[in-house]
# Entry
Amino acid sequence: MKIWAAWKAVKNSNKSKPAKLPMSYQVNPNTGETEVRPASCSDPTTWMTYDDAVKLLKSSKKFKGLQVALSSTPPKEGDNVLVAGDVDKAFRKDGAVDPEKLADVLAMGTYAEYSPTEPSPDHNDGGLRFLCYGNFPVDAGKHAGDIEVYQNSKWITITGHKLLEAPATVNHAQDALDTFRSKYFTPYEEIDTSDLPVTNVDFTDEQIINRLEHAFNDGVKEAFNHLFYKGVRGADQTVDDLALCNLIRGWTQKPEQIDSIFRQSKLMRPKWDEVHYANGDTYGQHTIKVSLGSRTKDTWVYMEQRAPVLPEQIDWSTFDVCVGSYRVNSSGIFLVKVDKEGEEIETRIARNPGVLVARGKNQDNSQEKYYKILIKVKGSDDERTVWRSSSGLLTKSGVMELINMDLQFPEANCSLMNSYFFTFLTLYEDTLPVETVAMRSGWKNNYSEFVIGNRSISAKGVSDITQIDNSAVDMYGQVGSAEGWAEGVDDIMKFPQIRFKAYAACGCLVLRITDVENYIFDQCCGTTRLKTFSNKLVASMFGHPKTLQISARSTALGIEKTAAACNDLPLFMDETSENVQFVMELIYRFANSNTRAKSNNASGLEMSKQFCSGLLLTGEDSIITESSKGGHHARRVPETHGVPEDANGNPIFITEDVKLKVKKAMNNNYGNIVDLFVQELMTEINNIGDLYVENFQKLPDTGTNALAGRLKGYYTVMLIAGQILERVFARLGMTPCDPLEIVTGYFNENVSCGVTVPDHIKILRVAYDMYVSEKRHFGATAGSTFIVSDRADMNAKFGWVDIKNGVTTINFLPQALKDRVVKSLGNGDGENRYESAVKQWGSQGILNKTVTTDNKTGKSKVINTRQIRTDEGTRPWVLQIPLANFYKHLGMEEDPDSETETPDEAEVSAPVKKIIVEDSDIIIPEENTSVYDVIMGEMGGAL
# Structure
């Protein structure tokens, strides 16, 4: 009979003892070879004969014993199948078998043996086992805890340790089975269910069906959806009927509700309502009784965890709350376990308490949850409040950071702390009070709310908000009043130069709304012009006048992060002259604030936050020089005056009394103007697009100058900000100013009449300067009338000049020109800027290009170099620029004598005298007798 397998021990990660894995000889259908593979109790084709099982057992020491398989499917009523019975804990403490249990097993009149369970030292957990033929109904009733009977889908391990008094054969024992059943199995209708688990919440049918449809356990979800929506799953529908009832009973133990849900399933059939039992029960009623009666104290049912109510205000002297299996009080956090005697054992996992007291409504990301933790500092009465995200509570790395926030626990307890917070959230999340939080300053909720510091400004007023993990919040504090500020600062704030700076600062709040890029406000002027003073004065409109000043020694990344955290607000940097190169590099990082992706080892790509801001700089020197990129000009709004000047161009003297008055006012009344400005700006939010267009048109026309048009956008934003700010100042009784007049004046000075030179034009000037100053390094092309310096052969060649038919072209060696450009620009990106300029020269027709044809494809290709013939007979590739194009694009007047190029008089070689002194050749002009005399004198007059 093929019911056998040999078993081997395999590691079982869920239990302390190894698992028994049945193995058998099986034919590989692909190769026809016999192989040893795992056997399945539900697949008879994997079972072996007894002889084969013994053969496999003896083939290797890894096989430890034999097993037999019971029926692969549930038997039907009356089927005669192999049945196995287990009687556990059959030994007394003295090691002898319990006489009553031994008698019951021997009464079966069939094969019986000691079970595989080895007795423990106290001998009370060893077992007995019997095998017989018969039928044991699936709904036989609930068995006693130490008795189990199996008849299908089960491997039974055979020890061979037969009871001496038992037969050596497996016999039919139906009568004995019935007797055994009546003694150890209680009919379901007689079971006392009062101490069995019951759900503590009522659900509707629809709620239960929905929860089972989407069960967290994949096995439960798959089983329910099949049984409920498809119907019969196995060979015996009786088994499927009970299985569905068992799934439903986890959510309700009401027989009538289980019946109601079952009737909605595909398993419903007429048999459900047929009377099948002597007591009058229908098949359906009995099935439900079997399902409910077969519960044990460990059977899972849904339990809504109802935790003790947390107090609104925590008094640590009386606070003592159980959070699931944890307890928290003023002494710390404890894990609570119950021992065998029912006594609670507490293990400390943290030396001081930390509890969740609020959850955050995140204004920046509604999907990201934050929770407020109140920590009692160990050894003092102090408390600390911190906000953490879900990952900050439920991951090891996140909870580890709480150690630095005064919650004291060892690293080894991280998993317990994760479990503690998980339990806390499970019990209390829905009941925690909600506080509004944000991750950074700036506009929220479609421009209906503006966050600065720990304040949320709306049209309705100002309310409290918490910014999480933003250390810059303290800079935007608020003291005093707007009226006190206005009264004290008006003597200096009334100057147009200071007003313009205030417009630029407030313009940062308009950038996002108008979709204008970030800008740099560069105030560069001499000493005594109140640069630093006015920076603090304008900063006091937003927060603390001094702490808002960022050092030019900061890192670019630090400033960028600060700008991202202080979104839609101005940043102030003083004395940029101390670190000009850094500021130059910062401009691009700051102005180009578009969202960027960066590598993150933990989670792939991490997106950095886009920010809108303006950087207000002060310094004695301009941050823009001749070597600056055109992009630097395009992002800069300069202010070169400081305080007003008198008729002689000297700064107007402001007395110390006035400065002290202003200083006192801004130090005692800071952070108030921004609230009024935001509320006034909100009245124009819906019209801001039209207002931008209107003000853009009010400023001088820039024609086709794209760079000037781009700059005009910045001045338009400042004009809008000025108009809004003037309304605020008017209500505060400050000296009025005309923002259109002020902004237009600066626009004319900086843009209309200013110098905003594109990068390729700057580099074109470098090329021209190289030609003019280094003619001795240029040769002539073949047939050119250019007069070459007599010393040209002694110098490095930079290029060749071609003068024919009154037209002059300058032919530069590309590498020589590149070297000169890189040296002239003096920064790390000179090569890239050179290559970009050459492309611009080509696209704008500044240089002469060459059209070539690909021999393979026949396609034409345009390149920016040309091949020439020199008077030496060489044919180099050069960058060829007509001299007239220099004049045209550099805005120079053409020299009428330029086409008859002659070397400068100083470049014409003078007669030389060769002096030989100690194997050294020194060549000097003969006319330079003074130099000659000096040299000869120093060398002792040797000839």
